[in-house]
Amino acid sequence: MSTKPSILPKDAAAAEGKVNVQINGTWYRFPKGTRIADACNSVGAHVPCFCYHPKLSVVGSCRMCLVEQGMPPRLAPGATPTYGEDGYQPISWMPRAIIACANTVAENMGIRTTGKLTEEARRGVLEFLLTNHPLDCPICDQAGECKLQEYTTDYGRGTHRFTENKTKKGKNLSIGPRVNLDQERCVLCRRCVRFMKEVVGEDVLGVVGRGTHNAIACYPGTRLDSNYSMNVVDLCPVGAMTSKDFRFKMRVWFLKSTPTIDVNCGTGTNINIWTREQQVYRITPRQNDEVNSCWMPDDHRLNYKFINAPERLTTPLIKTDAGAEQRPTTWDAALNVVVEQLHRMAPAETAIVASARMTNEELYMVRALARQLGITKIDVVPRKGVNDGMLVSEDRNPNTNGAKLVLGKTGNGLATIRRGVRNGSIRFVISLGEDLTSEEAGFTPEDLAGLDYLLAVHHTENATTKAADVVLPSVTFAEKYGTMINVTGRIQRLNKAIEPIGDSRSDWAIFRELSERLGCDCVRVIACPSPMMVLEEMAQEFAPMKGLTWGNIGNAGKVIIETGVTIPLIERSKAKN
Amino acid sequence: MSYIPIKRPKFSLLDKIYVVELVKGLIITFKHLALSLMGKSRGKKDFSNKGVGICMQFPEERWDARLPEYYRGAPTLVRGEDGRERCVSCQLCEFICPARAITITPGEVDPNSSCQKQEKAPAKFEIDMLRCIYCGMCQEACPEQAIFLSKEYLITLTDRKKAIRDKETLYRLGGMRKGLVNKWNQYK
Fold first, then answer.
1. Relative to the CA of A202, which of A49, A256, B103, B131 has its CA 20 to 30 Å away?
2. Disruptive mutation site among A251, A253, A254 for chain B (greatest number of B CBs within 10 Å)
3. Where would I find the H helices in A411-530?
């Protein structure tokens, strides 16, 4: 008895507000109230789940997460608990399995996620789920990332014992503008129902029919047309909810996912871009509890078509004479022409219209270029929209805080530039990553035609590039590395999912090349071989970025500025917990 | 990963000189020479019509009739007895293909057609015959019994572009095949 610890593990854990739980023979400590499923998954003992999702309420309807559970034996009146050598009470195992998602951990509890009882229970659950499953995996878009497929390889029987006809339900039903429903594939986990009710707050999905005819459907007169409707496609553990956009486009096992961020608004939703051979096929949200939880809005999700559009600029274009057509040329020739023209410009009559859609590194390079040319009239194009009370910020520029930090501009000076162009005091304009004729920028085609010189750097053909004297093709957010600072002041990383299309080059590389050819004396800027090094250069200059490196930003980002702005959906979910 | 040392055979001086093995090989050669001179060479019956008795006179004579049942030639796509194009473009053959000869662009079946239950069918299906190695993995991987290796072995091209067979060509070569399971029937 000498090896008995002086303080019992239960008292030590209670002092931390935790409980001791034995999972598959090893003792762990978890905070009180942790769900058994979360506890098991956090220590690598995987529990299969269909209906349980950490961001939604628990219903415990799929019964897939059955585990074997045991507690210390209940004491007879007057008896005192006995403790073993290790200080724990003996566990008496229950003869039936319990579900791991709806039960919480308790002191001295034992859990077994493997073993005869749990495997037999899961096999039974799966066999019932598969009685009416259509087994149309060859045509199902979920195949390859389907929980039912995965668990069937783990616990499935291989052969069917159910000889009766399968229940027929609706297939390929259009329940909304962006989502298709296949009721036969559904396992009735009701994640989609709970998501629409609890997160979106539009109660349009429900379960209709009885018994084997149970099916998900929209309530009469409603459609799944919320701007967050496509999240049910990600939530659906099987192929019941599928995206119309991604329908029959590509099997998921061919796709490579790259973690990056969304650039459609200031929230900077964390996303994965799914690509195959230079082609972007879809975008899905990536979990970040401080930015977007597990969700993203549909319009941002579907705004990727421009990446592989035929309108992409693939070679530099120059006008050799005024009034002549633009013609394609090589980078070397185009840059030489630009340098020659930039040398001739009067800095006082030149303006740079940059973009708050650029990364911090690109803005830093733009600043270096502007300083070298002696241009002081520089600003970004502001984009304001309506905050939808969920994830879409009213600031539709992804990096307004970055522009504020690096250039010290937020778009207020754009009106001055516009006035200057109209009264003739500005005759040269350098447009970087913006369409000047867009509503936000506010220039008219006549303004552009009246300029002596217009240099445009953009990834896609638009009215500005058509009017420009020289066009340098840059890349979209999917083709570059960089960092952006979102509305809450969090710096996040953009990762390259595909190589630049055609002959296009990363913006930062274009600006660096220009600075170098203009004879920049700032050796450190020119010597940067990658955006990661530019970031390190910036970390030395800007106080909020002190100590930042590409590596320590991490996939979740880092808050570097206090802005006081919050994301409504995240605030609501925090208040709920 | 553990390393398993392979035991190499130890060669004696006699083995290293190689003369013995050379003689052994020559004995086999001369045995066949003697047999053929006696008119008893292997496969004589099959090749006897041209008088030589050992070689097939290739361009005039063909393997076609003599190919074994299990012969693996060029892959083709087949139709079922109902005339349905069996491929649903699940892309498993594209995935398994070790030579990356197959390229599929999935598409949707016309909702008004008779086989709309199948929902999905290839918009494009291309096999690059310069890449194909006739391994038969595509046939093995196919969950729909849609791709079969034919007995076509003589693929002589005058143009590299013609080596890429499109969907129409593949269905034409595959034709209709009897006795296949129809998964997409009325009970589905």
1. A49
2. A251
3. 414-423, 445-449, 463-467, 507-517, 523-526
